[in-house]
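for the recovery benchmark. tokens below, seq after
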């Protein structure tokens, strides 16, 4: 039979069959005088087995090793290893679903610790307050999340001061970077940052720092630059 007929029979594409030839899973049959490959029953059986093993999750290299062992002993070992790997994946999925269930209950996409921190913060209107909360939500990606959350919770400025700083930053939305209000606000913002949370030297050229500054208007970004350099 021709490759198209073989493909229809085993429910595979001709491209997949040629790929299996290339990977050494299926020997290429001899060609007839007309140039077409001539496939037989053995090819049907081998392709059916390849399809079954790949559907079980074996890689093509593992399938090739399994097909090379006529007694099936290597195949058994591969299937046992695959079963163990699936068991590990199931355990990991169960753990992720357990964490997700907590987030669903809280209608939040952040951890309970960060959710509690955000719940205790003021939520004044404006882009600055929204950006601040989004940046805090990124704490879930930080390895030192617990330490940072604890420091913020214990030493964060009171709600009135936080709202006042956000309001003053909002007022600079249309101001130039050399606005006279920039330096005083930067000093007040630096004093409001909990001790120990700002490194001795801030890398303003770090991609994350650059992204944050680019999200702000010129005067607002200058306030943040000066505060981080204080």
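predicted aa per position
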């Amino acid at each position: 039979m021709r490759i198209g007929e073989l493909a229809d029979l085993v429910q595979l594409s001709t491209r997949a069959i040629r790929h299996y030839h290339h990977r050494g899973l299926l020997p290429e049959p001899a060609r007839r005088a007309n140039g077409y490959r001539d496939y037989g029953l053995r090819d049907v059986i081998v392709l059916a087995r390849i399809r079954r093993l790949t559907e079980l999750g074996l890689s093509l290299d593992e399938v090739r090793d399994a097909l090379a062992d006529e007694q099936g002993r290597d195949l058994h070992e591969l299937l046992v290893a695959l079963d163990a790997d699936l068991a590990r994946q199931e355990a990991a999925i169960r753990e992720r679903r357990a964490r997700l269930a907590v987030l669903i209950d809280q209608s939040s996409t952040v951890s309970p610790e960060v959710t509690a921190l955000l719940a205790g913060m003021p939520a004044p209107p404006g882009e600055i307050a929204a950006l601040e909360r989004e940046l805090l939500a990124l704490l879930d990606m930080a390895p030192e999340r617990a330490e940072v959350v604890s420091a913020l919770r214990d030493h964060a400025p009171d709600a009135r001061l936080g709202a006042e700083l956000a309001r003053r930053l909002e007022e600079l939305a249309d101001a130039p970077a050399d606005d006279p209000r920039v330096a005083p606000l930067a000093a007040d913002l630096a004093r409001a940052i909990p001790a120990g949370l700002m490194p001795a030297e801030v890398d303003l050229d770090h991609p994350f720092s650059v992204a944050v500054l680019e999200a702000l208007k010129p005067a607002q970004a200058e306030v943040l630059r000066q505060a981080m350099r204080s």
